[in-house]
C-alpha cells in the first residue's frame, strides 16, 4: 500500500505571488493585478478578471471577478492554516436562466468541480451564491428585464497556488457561458440581456 502524503505547502508568499503572475490565461479572459485590500493579512495579492469578446474590449459584458491570495503566518483559526483565497465572480444572465431554482447550486458546483479538475487541494471552504432578477421601470423601462449570478467563496489552499487561480478563471468563464476548452470560439452577443 502506497502512503499518500499531503500536498506541499505553497512556500513563501513571494514564490506564490510569482506563480500567480506567471499564469497565462485564455485570450477572452483579461486578468490584471490590482491593489490588494488592506488589513486582511500581512501579505496579500489581488487580481481582477473580465470576460470579453476580444482582449481590446473596454467593457466586460460577459462576466467579471476578483481573486485575493492572503498569507498570515499566524494561521488565523477560521483559515485552519497560513493561506486563504477569497474570490468573487459575477455574470449577467438571461432572465429565463436566472429563475432556475438550482442556479445557485450549479454555480457552487462549478467552483468545486474546477478545483477538483485542477487537483487544487483545499479545505475550510465557504461561500455564497446569489442570483438577482431585475426589472426596469419609468425611464429605465426600456432596459427590460435582467438577471445576474454572483458567487463569493473562500478556501484554504494546499500545494501550488497556480491551480487554484486557474480554477477561479475557469469558474469565471463558466459563469459567463464559456465552457472549459472553448478558447478561440466566438461569443454570441445574444446570450446576455442588456441589464445585469
UniProtKB/TrEMBL annotation:
Pfam families: DUF3000 (PF11452). This is DUF3000 domain-containing protein.
Amino acid at each position: 500500500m502506497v502512503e499518500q502524503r499531503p500536498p506541499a505547502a505553497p512556500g513563501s508568499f513571494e514564490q506564490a505571488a510569482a506563480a500567480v503572475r506567471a499564469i497565462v490565461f485564455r485570450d477572452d479572459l483579461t486578468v490584471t493585478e490590482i491593489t490588494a485590500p488592506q488589513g486582511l493579512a500581512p501579505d496579500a495579492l489581488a487580481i481582477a478578471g473580465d470576460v470579453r469578446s476580444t482582449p481590446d474590449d473596454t467593457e466586460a459584458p460577459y462576466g467579471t471577478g476578483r481573486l485575493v491570495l492572503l498569507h498570515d503566518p499566524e494561521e488565523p483559526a477560521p483559515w485552519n492554516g497560513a493561506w486563504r483565497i477569497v474570490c468573487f465572480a459575477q455574470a449577467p444572465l438571461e432572465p429565463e436562466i436566472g429563475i432556475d431554482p438550482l442556479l445557485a447550486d450549479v454555480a457552487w458546483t462549478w467552483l468545486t468541480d474546477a478545483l477538483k479538475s485542477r487537483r487544487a487541494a483545499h479545505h475550510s471552504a465557504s461561500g455564497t451564491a446569489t442570483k438577482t432578477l431585475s426589472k426596469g421601470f419609468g425611464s429605465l423601462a426600456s432596459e427590460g428585464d435582467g438577471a445576474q449570478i454572483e458567487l463569493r467563496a473562500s478556501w484554504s489552499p494546499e500545494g501550488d497556488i497556480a491551480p487554484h487561480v486557474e480554477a477561479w478563471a475557469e469558474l469565471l468563464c463558466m459563469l459567463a457561458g464559456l465552457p472549459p476548452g472553448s478558447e478561440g470560439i466566438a461569443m454570441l452577443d445574444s446570450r446576455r440581456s442588456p441589464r445585469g
